[in-house]
Design goal:
The chain is built from six helices and no strands. The chain is mainly alpha-helical. The chain has one domain (3-115). α1 runs antiparallel to α3 (43-62) and α1 (3-29) packs parallel to α5 (77-90).
């Protein structure tokens, strides 16, 4: 496995973890708290922000090797993860507009992968 592929996988892992962090924050936002401070200082929120910090470190590591032009392509996969999490965890509906948008994102990723 060459370095670019390995570091691309590091960036993809970071993007996935970032999506998980977003889900954690949404779950925390759906809860009712006794005070406004507990909305921000609770284990779920603190853990989510710690994960965000970790994903920043993963991005820094990954960008040591991958070209800058590849980064946004890999980071666009977050829209796919978030949509899947939304459907599975939050019972959100996928409408025609979202499907078209996801199709365009996936098409862009494939075009870059093939012709990049």
């Amino acid at each position: 496995m060459n370095k670019t592929v390995m570091y691309s996988m590091v960036l993809l892992a970071g993007v996935f973890i970032s999506a998980v962090s977003q889900v954690m924050l949404k779950k925390a936002a759906q809860k009712k708290y006794d005070s406004w401070i507990k909305e921000y200082v609770n284990p779920l929120v603190i853990s989510a922000y710690a994960l965000f910090f970790g994903t920043t470190l993963l991005s820094l590591i990954a960008y040591k090797e991958i070209p800058l032009s590849l980064g946004p392509i890999l980071e666009a996969t977050s829209y796919i993860y978030i949509t899947v999490f939304g459907v599975l965890l939050f019972k959100e509906k996928i409408n025609k507009r979202k499907l078209i948008s996801l199709g365009l994102i996936i098409t862009g990723i494939v075009i870059y992968a093939v012709f990049g």
